[in-house]
Specification:
Oligomer: heterodimer
Radius of gyration of chain B: 13 Å
Number of strands of chain B: 11
Radius of gyration of chain A: 14 Å
Helix content of chain B: under 10%
Number of strands of chain A: 12
Number of helices of chain B: 0
Largest interface: A-B, 22 and 23 residues
Largest sheet of chain A: 6 strands, mixed
Largest sheet of chain B: 7 strands, mixed
Distance between the termini of chain B: 31 Å
Helix content of chain A: under 10%
Order of helices and strands of chain A: EEEEEEEEEEEE
Shape of chain B: globular
Structural class of chain B: mainly beta
Distance between the termini of chain A: 41 Å
């Protein structure tokens, strides 16, 4: 079974600065997707960014970018120009792309990001 | 708005009782996933349905059951409730070829 590990329970960043959240995963598969979800205090789960394992280019969405290291099974999220609204729990998630039962997302334990004004 | 609708948003009940949580997926999505999030924990996969059929099962207790109806809405039934069942229960539906999940706002269950 795949596992996802987020080793940083909490991180803090100064407003306008850059922060990187870490995620590692364990899998024997070669075809999969990785995601970062944000959960603000409202508890809504919001997709931040996705990465397809077969793409070598790192995904970018505005101020959010990833550093995907397939061999190292690492998938970190970089938030540039941090804003107060970025304060939230961030979850890394894995999804197999093998056409079998389920294809559910497996989540890491989360990283709580605090943004200091 | 993700397009996934969950009811009720909040539910308070007593130990030993039974509750039903309801989910309507996004229009056109055939898959429904249920997740449980206990206080300050990650999301634990419970069960998935695809077009009315159970597709995958995770760490779902025997006291819990689910089904997906012909109109594609799903219900999660929780019975013989215990204090430890207090949690946020999310429903999600899968969209797009990349298969990201779109989550509802969750149903917060408190068992007293």
């Amino acid at each position: 079974a795949q596992t996802v590990t987020q080793s940083q329970p909490e991180m803090s960043v100064q407003e306008a600065e850059t922060v990187t959240l870490s995620c590692t995963y364990d899998t024997s598969e070669s075809d999969y997707y990785l995601f970062w979800y944000k959960q603000p205090p409202s508890r809504q789960m919001i997709l931040v960014i996705r990465q397809e394992a077969y793409k070598q280019q790192n995904a970018t969405e505005n101020r959010f970018s990833v550093n995907f290291q397939k061999a190292a099974k690492s998938f970190s999220l970089k938030i540039s120009d941090s804003q107060l609204g970025d304060a939230a729990m961030y979850f890394c998630a894995y999804r197999s792309n093998i056409n079998n039962a389920g294809n559910m997302l497996t989540f890491g334990g989360g990283t709580r990001l605090m943004v200091k004004p | 708005d993700s397009g996934v609708t969950q009811t009720p948003k909040h539910l308070i009940t007593a130990t030993g009782q039974r509750v039903t949580l309801r989910c309507s997926p996004r229009s056109g999505d055939l898959s429904v996933y249920w997740y449980q999030q206990s206080l300050d924990q990650g999301l634990q996969f419970l069960i998935q349905y695809y077009n009315g059929e159970e597709r995958a099962k995770g760490n779902i207790l025997e006291r819990f059951s689910a089904q997906q109806f012909p109109d594609l809405h799903s219900e999660l039934n929780l019975s013989s409730l215990e204090l430890g069942d207090s949690a946020l229960y999310f429903c999600a539906s899968r969209g797009g070829y990349t298969g990201e999940l779109f989550f509802g706002e969750g149903s917060r269950l408190t068992v007293l």
